[in-house]
Structures are given as C-alpha cells and as structure tokens.
Specification:
The structure is a homotrimer.
Chain A (H helix, E strand, L loop, with lengths): L4 H4 L5 H31 L5 H4 L9 H29 L4 H24 L6 H24 L2
C-alpha cells in the first residue's frame, strides 16, 4: 500500500469522491422503484393490503406490478452489496483510474438494467448485460479487497 | 467545505455520533422483524420449508405472516439505503443541526411505519406518512451528497 | 474510549482489516446466490419472465428455485445489516480480540446457513444454529455501538 489510509479519506481523493457521488446516484435510482411500484399499483388497481385497497377494490396480483417488484428486488440483491463492496474497495487503496471507471460503468449498467427490465422490455441478452457487468465488477472489487486485507 | 474530511471522523462530531447511534437503533428494529415473522409462523403453524413444518404440518401461506414479511421487505427497501445514504451524507459535511434532526425523525418514522403496518393496523394515511418522511429525507441527503461530491 | 477515532482508521488496526476481509468474503457468498438461482432456473426450466423463458417455455414456479431464493432473501435480511452494524461497531473501538472473532464466527455461520438451507438440506436445528449465531452477534454489536455513541 503506497499511501496511509488516512490519506485516502480526504476530499481530494477522486476514488472517495466518485464512490460517494455514484453510490448516491445508484441508491436514488434504486429507491425510485418504490414510486414506480406504487404508480403501477395505482394504475392497475392492484393492492397488497386491504387498508390500501379500500372498500371498492380487493387485494390482487398484476404482472406489470410484479415486473417492477422483480426489478426492485434485483436492485436490492445487487446495488446494496455493490455500495458496501465499493466502500471496502475504496479503503483498499485501488488505482484511481480503475476504481473511478468501475464506479461509472457499474452505475450506467444498473440504470440500463432497470430500463430494459421494467420500463421498455428488450429481449435478452439486453438485461443479462446490465446484470453481469456490475456482477463481475463486484467480484473483482471484493477479491482485490480481500487480498489487501487478508490477515 | 468548511472543514477537512479528517475533522469529521472524530468522536466529537455530533453528526457522526448520531449517525452511528440512530443507524444502530434502526437496524436493530429491522432485524427484529425476523423474530416477529418466526413468532407469527409458529403461532399460525405456517411454515415455508418442509424441514421446519415437521411431520404434522404442511407448508402454507398465512395473511398475518405475509403482512409481517411485507413490513420486513419494506424495511429492507428503505432502511438499508437510508443507512448507506446517511453515511455518504455524513462525509459530505452537512449542517450538524439539520443532519442530527433528520436522523432522529427518520428513525422515529420507520418505527411508526412498522407499528401501523405489522402490529396494530391503522388506516391510511398512517403508514404512508411513516413511509414518505424517510423517503423524502433519503432524496434530500442523496442530492446534497451528490452536489458536494460531483466531479 | 481509549483511542481517537483517527487511530482506528489505519491499515495496522486488526479490527478494521478483519472487518474488510470478512465482509468481502460474506458479501461474495451472498451474491453467489444469484448464480445458484440462475443455475436452478436453467436446470428446471423455471423462468420468471417471458423474455427469459423464450417460445418453448412458460413462466412457472419450482420448489428448488424457491428454496435458493429463500436462502438468498435470508442472506439479504441478515448479511446486509451485519456488514452495516459491523462497520459502526468498528468505529465504536471494540476490544480487538472480541471483534475479530465475532467477524470470523459470523462469516462461518452464514456459510453454514447457506449450505444446510440450499445445498444439502439438513434437518433442524442445523439451519437455526447458522441463523441465530450471527443474529445474536448483530444485537451485541448494535447495542455496544449504541452505548458508545449515545448522545
């Protein structure tokens, strides 16, 4: 490790800055799925709870709602560990140019994944590409971190 | 940014202290949902796996169990990104009085959300209020952080 | 608190090193569940989306797929808060020998949990043990952190 950890935790470190910026963007994208689910529930009158459905509707299941919910679950399965692994990777003192570009590409891929899954459905491998780029990046960052921090 | 990042990472910084304290409380609340689910499964003899059901019971679905599970899923959709966004927001050097109050209000709102969703069901907009206060706070904190850390 | 927070954030701190190492291992284990789900979907021809099923298959539900998905969801319910609580606990300046062993035992227990849930199903209490060791550790770490960071 070329630098001490304390030198990484500065506003001048582009890796930390980009981690914070792109993680904020990616997490906002993820929580927007709640609004999308609510909108699809309202539009299709598909409710999960009696107190939401009111007297005029019953609880039901709708494919458009379920599709958004699957996209949301996939975000949680991937974006949450991505942010955690990325943070550990920031602490491992990575090569700045590599780290910054990983954060950018991964965020773009996750936005693409949502677009082809829940907004305009595009045949495979469109969604698989959006899934595997961040997925492989997670393993890369986790293995790099494990090597730096082992014993 | 008035202060260097290193000055934020001290035990004297009320923003960091409150982030750690309220996040610990909120995460404990979230994981308590597992116990609530287990309790409802046991009480209603509703099991998800044959090895849990034993010889005398079959796997089934029960509305009380599903309600707790929906509350748990909603916690995961909101509390996990909340803690992550809050941490990035801490690093963005926010105004202490604003940040500390956000952490307090958000934790209270999520506890309220669980109460009206899974313990005593209260008609809307009770749950919607518990949902939207932390939800809007997340966007506020994420946008503030994105502005501080952009390029 | 015997040491300043800044002294914790060094590559020499075994608590931080072990947190980073074991969290990376545990998060990799969690995201491997996506591959396991995909493998089970492919093997049993059980697809969630029409664009994945193609013309020859229909969307369906399969018990082997659902079992892996339940194990994955359980990981998200536990491993994600574990990593977050562990990080706050690292900042609370715990006794190094206690913290390091918690991280080791918790990671081993979660790997065991997946093994007996989704790979070779072993009767209870095999899975319960793998669940409760990390679960109790989470409360211990969260309460310790809350005590250190209160007001």
């Amino acid at each position: 490790m070329g630098r001490a950890l304390i030198e990484l935790l500065t506003y001048e470190n582009p890796v930390l800055r980009n981690f914070c910026f792109w993680s904020a963007i990616m997490l906002m994208k993820m929580i927007l799925m709640s609004i999308m689910t609510g909108f699809q529930r309202y539009r299709t009158k598909t409710f999960a709870n009696p107190e939401d459905a009111g007297k005029d509707n019953e609880c039901s299941v709708n494919d458009k709602v379920e599709r958004v919910r699957r996209a949301h679950l996939n975000d949680m399965e991937n974006i949450l560990p991505l942010v955690l692994i990325s943070f550990i990777y920031v602490l491992s003192d990575p090569i700045p140019a590599v780290a910054v570009n990983i954060f950018r590409v991964v965020t773009a891929a996750r936005i693409w994944h949502t677009f082809v899954y829940a907004i305009i459905v595009i045949p495979q491998p469109a969604r698989a590409i959006g899934f595997f780029i961040p997925y492989i990046a997670m393993f890369y960052m986790a293995i790099q971190s494990a090597i730096v921090f082992v014993n």
